[in-house]
Amino acid sequence: MTSNKIRDVALHYLANYDYDSFSLNQIANDVGIRKASIYAHYKSKEDIFYAVLMHSIKSGKHTIVCFFHDHHQEPLEKTIKSFFYWFLIESKKNEELKFLLRIMYFPPSNLKNYSSKYTGTLLIELERLLKRYIREKIQKEKLEFSQHEGEIALSFITIAEGCLIELYFADKPRYEQRVEVIFPIFWKGIQ
């Protein structure tokens, strides 16, 4: 499937470089086709961006959901905290997550409205899923919190976004330091 190859090569560039720092010629060369052949699959570079965005949102959401599913036997506190360390590793090797992290904070200026609409929707969907997950864990583990599961989910996503910015701009030790400082405050605050 040439269209998927084009999308996957573009994903690599978009996850690792600015939107304007690569060309359709580079994508065509990496795929092993002529630039003109790209237009049989995509109308423009923007069209490829849209395909990468939709693919990455679907894949990224699935990857995050799988994390929580794979940790459903662990206590909620451990699962939530381990998410930060899992994401640290996963975002280095998973180009869809790396792309989403980049695009959430630094979308191409000409595609900002489009990408913000879809990444914002992704965050809302993840919040909804996390709320349900927390509700199930509260029932299963007989947990009592001072906050409603929706507030806990939103608080977690807010903290995660702050830590992810640190991951994007700083190094691993600074990210880990931030997680180690904020997580106990978060956990104590919801009890």
From TrEMBL:
It comes from the Bacteria. Keywords: DNA-binding. Residues 23-42 bind DNA. Signal peptide: none annotated. Residues 1-60 form the HTH tetR-type domain. InterPro entries: Homeodomain-like_sf (IPR009057), HTH_TetR (IPR001647). This is TetR/AcrR family transcriptional regulator.
